[in-house]
């Protein structure tokens, strides 16, 4: 038996190194560039958002001031109408309560001097004698 | 008049035909609808500022409608005067603007093109300038921005 026992051994000079590191080709922009690009997109988006918010706020301001400028005129008109209706209602009341001694037409139901608007609208047909019986 | 389909709630019943007391000076009402008023609002506000502020200070004293009738008449006359002035010089531009407001839900932002001509006409005719109070001063006002928002 001239066949000696052979052991499984590495080749002469050892095995070649195993390339276990990840070696992918460099593709696309790097991390910092990505960060900057995304940041730029975000910044542009926020810029547009704030432009829109600013415009909306200014439009709202314009609308509100348009109403504020008209308010005195509208109140004045409504006041004149309310006063006219109140006078007419007091006149009706005086006519209805003519025969009642000690009745003051148009006297406030409150003791204070502060103005309190009429709770019930002064409607002519509602303020005729015998309206409730109809 | 009245709500359609609801015969028991008649608008006519709420009308009071009684004239105002005869000792009050007569004053016409403005009698304008919303869109022309809104179109003229900033000019009414700037031209009639003194009367308006006087009236509102008076209303602050008392809410009684009787208390501020005098100031209210001045306010109404001033507003009518401003509207008549606008009508006399810039009738076409005024009409274009308020009709635009009427069909665009009374939003100023959707009527910038007619408004531009209208404001220019009023500025050249009377020197009136639309200015929104309280707007930031480092930027042009909303109605002067380019491009005008549609």
Descriptive overview:
The complex is a heterodimer of chains A (134) and B (150). Chain A has 1 helix and no strands. Chain A has one helix at 31-96. The radius of gyration of chain A is 47 Å and the shape is rod-shaped. Chain B has a domain at 34-130 and 138-144. In chain B, α2 (49-61) packs across α3 (69-103). Chain B is globular. The chains are: A mainly alpha (134), B mainly alpha (150). Chain A binds chain B through residues 54-55, 58-59, 61-63, 65-73, 75-80, 82-88, 91, 115, 117, 121-125, and chain B through 13-21, 27, 29-30, 37-38, 41-42, 44-46, 48, 51-52, 55-56, 59, 62-69, 71-73, 75-76, 79, 107-109, 132-135, 139, 141-143, 145, 149.
For this structure, the quaternary state is heterodimer
Strand content of chain A: under 5%
Helix percent band of chain B: 40-55%
Please state the overall shape of chain A, judged from the principal axes of the Cα atoms. Answer: rod-shaped
**Total helical segments of chain A:** 1
Instruction: Give the uncertain stretches of chain B in residue-range form.
Output: none
CA-based gyration radius of chain B: 19 Å
* SSE order of chain B: HHHH
Largest sheet of chain A: none
Q: Provide mean pLDDT of chain A, rounded.
A: 90
Q: Which structural category fits the helices and strands of chain A?
A: mainly alpha
Shape descriptor of chain B = globular
Largest interface: A-B, 37 and 52 residues
Helix content of chain A: 40-55%
Element string of chain A (H = helix, E = strand)? H
Counting DSSP H or I runs of 4 or more residues, the number of helices of chain B is 4
What is the number of beta strands of chain A? 0
Query: What percentage of the residues of chain B does DSSP assign to strands (E)?
Result: under 5%
Q: Major sheet of chain B: size, sense and barrel closure?
A: none
């Amino acid at each position: 038996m001239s066949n000696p026992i052979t052991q499984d051994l590495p080749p002469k000079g050892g095995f070649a190194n195993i390339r276990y590191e990840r070696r992918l080709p460099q593709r696309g922009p790097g991390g910092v560039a990505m960060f900057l690009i995304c940041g730029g997109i975000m910044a542009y988006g926020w810029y547009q958002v704030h432009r829109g918010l600013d415009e909306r706020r200014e439009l709202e301001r314009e609308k509100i001031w348009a109403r504020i400028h008209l308010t005195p005129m509208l109140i004045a008109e409504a006041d004149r109408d309310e006063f006219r209706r109140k006078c007419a209602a007091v006149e009706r009341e005086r006519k209805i309560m003519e025969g009642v001694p000690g009745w003051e037409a148009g006297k406030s139901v409150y003791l204070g001097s502060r103005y309190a608007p009429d709770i019930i609208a002064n409607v002519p047909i509602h303020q005729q004698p015998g309206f409730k019986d109809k | 008049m009245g709500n359609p389909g609801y015969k028991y709630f008649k608008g006519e019943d709420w009308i009071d035909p009684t004239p105002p007391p005869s000792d009050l000076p007569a004053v016409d009402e403005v009698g304008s609808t919303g869109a022309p008023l809104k179109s003229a609002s900033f000019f009414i506000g700037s031209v009639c500022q003194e009367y308006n502020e006087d009236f509102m200070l008076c209303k602050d004293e008392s809410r009684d409608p009787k208390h501020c009738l005098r100031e209210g008449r001045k306010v109404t006359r001033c507003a009518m005067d401003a509207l008549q002035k606008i009508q006399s010089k810039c009738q076409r531009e005024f009409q274009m603007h308020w009709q635009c407001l009427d069909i665009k839900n009374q939003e100023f932002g959707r009527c910038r093109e007619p408004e531009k001509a209208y404001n220019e006409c009023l500025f050249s005719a009377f020197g009136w300038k639309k200015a929104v109070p309280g707007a930031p001063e480092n930027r042009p006002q909303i109605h002067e921005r380019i491009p005008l928002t549609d």
